[in-house]
Specification:
By secondary structure, the protein is mostly helical. It is built from 6 helices and no strands. It starts with a helix and ends with a helix.
Length: 202
Amino acid sequence: MSNIIWMIVLTLCTSAIILSAAVGEPSIVMMMSAGVSFGIAVIAIREIRALEAAGASRRILNSAVARFMGLVWTWGALGLVVSYGLVLSNNWPNWFAYFVAFAAAGVLCLFYSSTLDRDEALKRDDETLVNLSRPIMIGQLVAMLGTMAWLALSPSKSLLSTAQPDWVANNIFFGGAIALIAICSYALLFDKTETSSKTAKA
């Protein structure tokens, strides 16, 4: 996708969370968060499949995966900073720490993606960097499964109640985890298939 389309998608996704948070209705925030995460996951999987069909290299495929992971983290960071920095009067003291963590994860994913693109353009043969993709995806998948379990099992975490000031953040965590689980699961599937096929040819 072009940079303009990326900016449009990110703006729409962030706006959906901001507007629903301003309404103050948790069920709307949850639906918006789930809708955004589903949309990002669908777009990501469709682009990865299109690249696969076009015969893209493993480096290009993993660059696309990292770029979409970066989009999810950036959406989460923007959702937190705008919701808690500008919209909600019932502030949550921990929001800034999570914002910094999400922003850092987004920057790292996007930097990794751009580095893979640069290596592909320079036709580098070194596979060291691209081989990091699989542990990165596994790490994020495990972390997001843990996040879902944490949200489901923790008595203080509620997606549908405004009793605690972190209710918007919980819905952002929920939506981001869904998107990352879907993207990483599909990416690991194609990465395993490609690795297996290379082993068979060898």
